[in-house]
Amino acid sequence: MSQPVKLTPNIELDNQPRRHWVQLGLAAGLTTGLSFGLPGLAGAQTGFPNRPMKMIVPWTPGQATDLVGRIAAQEISKALGQAVVVENKAGAGGLIGTDAVAKAAADGYTLLAASSGPVSIAPLLQKVPFDPDKELAPVALMGIAPFVLVTAPDFPAKDIREFVAKVKAAPGKFTFASSGTGATAHLFAEAFNAATGIQALHIPYKGSVPALADVMSGQVNYCVETAASTMPLIRAGKLKAYGLSIGRETPLVPGVPPFASALGLPGFDMGAWIGVMLPGGTPKAIVDQMANIIEKSMQNPEVKKTFATISVEPEFKGPSDLAAYMKAYSSRMADVIKRNQIKVS
Predict the structure, then answer these.
(1) Torsion of CA 248, 252, 254, 257, to 10 degrees
(2) I need a labelling partner for 336 at 20 to 30 A (CA). Which of 178, 203, 284, 321 fits?
(3) Dihedral angle of Cα 207, 211, 213, 219, to the nearest 10 degrees
(4) What is the pLDDT of residues 145-160, one digit of tens each?
């Protein structure tokens, strides 16, 4: 019998370190190309699936999306009694693997470990080889990755209100880092700046590691980065945390208030989403079947524990709710991009 997924990784969503996650993923048996399979009855009764399925992850092993996708693959396999092969098809910021699913047969045998970067944000910044609205079908939201505003430990502000007042009082003097122009961290920081009236200079880096290093040293004043990448440094006293991008408190970042409540910004609720999609045109019965399996799996205490270890808030939305959520998400990101005239080469 397959064992519950148990991981204790420390990674991120986009371009952050993943070695520790990969090592733990391998130790747990979640290896590249791994086939999850268990005897089951569901498939035999309906005729679907009658052969192995595939979960394409558009990132290298060890990313948050990769590990959430592997959880979904294992749970779908357990429920349907068919192997679900996890295939990492990385490249171009997640676009290669995402496009592979968009172009796959709409028969339910090819799933996507989907995330906000390649599905919701990239199409707003550049030409992509697929139409996310027509060629991908939402199945289930599985989790939200919160972001945290951090500075060097000696930044002279006792809380988020004092931070905003200090930075706002000196337009153009302060700097903020991101993992790259157009990255999720960049967009969330720009949204925060706009909501609070801050004018600061953006310093883009190639990944979050160098960005966080310069924030820790005080070379750059602040950044808004994933809880997965910042929490180890916060616990070690190397970063100071001021606020959360999502609209609620979370045990993933204890004692740190949301921007929304701490600054009186109702509606400020931003995180990187992770879920499952199928090729556009997949029969509704199959989409609903997959969504029901994932919804049930999200009640599993072991699954919830695993989400906590990867700094992702578990949150389920079914096909129609996810579609509406994605539409609103893209609209908000488009507004941030347009307002700040963000362009990528």
Answers:
(1) -30
(2) 321
(3) 160
(4) 999 999 999 999 999 9
